[in-house]
Specification:
Length: 380
Amino acid sequence: MNQIIYLDNNATTKVSEGVLNKMLPYLKDEYGNPSSIYSLGTKIKKELNIARENIARLIHADKNNIIFTSCGSESNISAIMSSIRQYPNKKHIITTKVEHASILECMKYLESDGYNITYLNVDKHGRLDLKELEKAITKDTCLISVMMANNEIGNIYPIKDIAKIAHNNNILFHCDAVQAVGKIKIDINELDVDFLSFSGHKINAPKGIGVLYIKDSNNYTPLIFGHQEKNRRGGTENVPYIIGLGKAAEEILNDNYQKEKGIEKLRDYLEEEVKKNIEDIHIYGDKQNRIPNTSSIAFKGVKADALMLVLESFNIYVSTGSACNAEIALPSHVLTACKANLEDYSPIRISLGTYTTKEEIDEFIKRLIGIIKMMRKDIK
Ligand code: PLP
């Protein structure tokens, strides 16, 4: 099989055909600025509104509560910066050890700026202990930021409970939902978060478009000033990408998550087949509470980076951690937080997507069985 088998959808996804076709006119003839008051602009403004509505529906939000940013990372930073500006006298933030680099790097910067950051631990399955969260809260805490789903091991965190704890203590709560939106159903009203971030390129829209849900715009301070997005994010709107993301949202809503159910079955099938056919494996994460597309699997004695390269020679693409960390040869901070035995069990991350087929998974399993046999023989 010479076709590419792409199993790294947590890193990024392919732009859907429908999304691409929807975007193209806005990269060609429909180039008006939505702020212009003549028809070339107002037409675009209308289309942006439709896209905004569809995107808001993805999380059951009101369209007035979402703004567009350049990426998930910008959404995360915008939420954090606005929160700390709202409470300038409070200098304590709580987050976790398993957040995405965009959160952790921002926290590092804030530490250098005098903030005190608590990084919550996880157990060996990557789960949080909410008692530890409650104990960490002080009078000085202004913000809690916890991701909805982990990009490496797929764990889903109890966001509703965490938001409740935050609000009972008059603390703002931000949730990085980049790996959750489009994979699991999200109802923002049930969760009651103050901020929620997500990103286009994880849901078959292009790279370079992000979304931030803001519960209370009155207390929001922008990261980039300007009149767009009702003064909440300056910069002329990225029209083609917003419209593309609107179409991606529509496709997810039309699928009614059926594909997602299919993806979960396919992921479980993959894990079962791997278990049946390969000895001494370990699956990381909380198997009872994971996003449907992710599997982090280690094969005893086989180094994940070597395995990834051998798989690549067969046109199969997986990762050894998050794409953002892949260039730095450091052990994964998520697996380190899980106190994983990475010497013996270093995992590859397999993340399925909307376009992953059973045939591809069967081909992957077939290749994997042979490769692991070969690599283990070489080690002996
Ligand atoms: N948060 C999580 C959990 C992610 O997995 C990613 C991307 O991998 C991001 C944030 C950043 O999103 P973006 O690439 O759009 O900046």
